[in-house]
Amino acid sequence: MRPCHPNFDKMQEETVQPQDAGNSEIPVEQQLADALARIEQQREAMLRVVADAENARKRAQTEASTARKYALERFAESLLPALDSLEAAIKTGDLSGVELTLRQLSGALEKSGVREVAPVAGERFDPHRHQAMAAVEAEAEPNTIVATMQKGYLLHERVLRPALVTVAKARVENAGGNPISDTDLD
Predict the structure, then answer these.
(1) pLDDT, tens digit, for every residue of 19-74?
(2) With 90 as the cut, is the pLDDT of residue 83 above it?
(3) What is the C-alpha to C-alpha distance for residues 112 and 71, in angstroms, rounded to an integer?
């Protein structure tokens, strides 16, 4: 394969003369003044665009800050009836009022996308939704939940609080050894 090199032998030198665009009757000073005026107009237009961009950035920051500040407004409004019911139940000492309040609170949480994580015994342990507080030998299959100590909660699909659970571990036969330890200390 031959390398490709440009052939300079056939090239001719050209002289570039300024083209006369009909400006011969306008003095050079006037042409310079016109060019400077156009440059100044473009500079002012650029400054306006930069200022508009800066104003848009500040406006977006303000809107984002306001959105963060009031994001929980709807959620808080949905909790107010539950708060009112709880206060009324405490004043009257009525347990049915407390149950009503619990239902209202649960409903407000559900409307806001908060769901319970309440695993039942025998359910497979999921480290993304459950937190193992203890592992005990049990008749259940290893890595399954034996008991739930505290319910967890999800906000849509994100874990707000994992469920606290006790998990089954495999039984270890410890014939004649230390009942406290599964290692032989002899």
Answers:
(1) 555 556 889 999 999 999 999 999 999 999 999 999 999 999 999 988 888 888 88
(2) no
(3) 11
pLDDT in tens, 147-162: 999 999 999 889 999 9
* pLDDT, greater one: 171 or 11: 171
Q: Residues near 31 by Cβ (< 8 Å), separated by ≥ 6?
A: 23
* Residue 15 pLDDT: 63
Give buried/exposed letters for 83-94 (b at 16+ CB in 10 A, else e).
eebbeebeeeee
Contact 135, 167 (CB under 8 A): yes
Query: Cα(140)–Cα(121) distance, rounded to whole angstroms?
Result: 9
Q: How far is CA 17 from CA 8, 24, 35, in A?
A: 23, 14, 21
φ/ψ region of 116 (left if φ > 0, alpha if ψ in -120 to 50, else beta) reads beta
| In contact, 124 and 163? CB cutoff 8 Å | no
Q: What 3-state DSSP class applies to 181?
A: coil
Q: What is the pLDDT of residue 24?
A: 61
Q: In the numeric block, which tokens belong to residue 75?
A: 């959620």
CA pseudo-torsion sign 69, 73, 74, 79: positive
- Kindly tell me if the per-residue pLDDT of 89 is higher than 90: no
